[in-house]
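Dear support,

I submitted the protein below through the web form. The confirmation email said the job was done, but the results page showed an empty box. After a refresh the structure appeared. I'm attaching both so you can tell me whether what I see now is the final result or a partial one.
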Amino acid sequence: MARETTDVPVAREPQLRGQTVVVIGGSAGIGFETARLARTEGGDVVLTGRDPGRLKEAARELSARTSAAFDADDAAAVKRFFDELPAPIDHVLIAAYTRRSYGPMLESSPEEVGGSIGRRVTQVLEIARNAAPKMRPGGTLLLTGGTERNFDRQYGIAPAAFAVLPPFTAALALELAPVRVNLIQAGFVDTALATSYFADERAVEDRREELRATLPIGRVVGPADVAALAVHLMTNTAVTGATYDIDGGQRLIP
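What the results page shows now:
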């Protein structure tokens, strides 16, 4: 006689229990969603952001361990933040917005072009320099960037600025080992920051409709999608020096 079986859910240990996750740029968008998921996985989160009011609200909503308002491009502020942050740290996600110049390159000053290419690199280096001494071996420094592959005079230096990040990530992974360094390159992610580049809400919705119609996944990538990848890279201790595209397959479309 066949015996009936009942599936019993197996409790899963939270993947980040007992670990501290620092999110640089954690008051909104990808940073906020990653911090939310990290909390769900049992991690303690520390949030930073430029806007004190928005940061305070985000920290309250997520029950963050602590928060600090400063500009991630300010090297002195970055040093002060990590000097005052108790060790140990397990993971640092850099989701802060980096100012970048758009428009034709020949119409930009040398300072604007150099800043657009180098600002993310110098920002990450200052964060890495100050965070690494407090990070546990096997922890993660996780960078974010874009996947702009369209060449148009209006994009200017943006594709080159993004292209420098993968080799930079690989080199930094060797310097920081055994701390791991990885890069997430996102296409269009439906956040307030991404939509702010469009002229109006109609233009934003047109872009969403275009992506729904053309992307292989049939939908627009959201911040929760990037957060899921970020937490995976925090917990998979075999991955370092790698670059991951998350664009819904946009790179596959001519």
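Response: this is the final, complete result; the empty box was a page-load delay. The first helix runs from residue 29 to 40.
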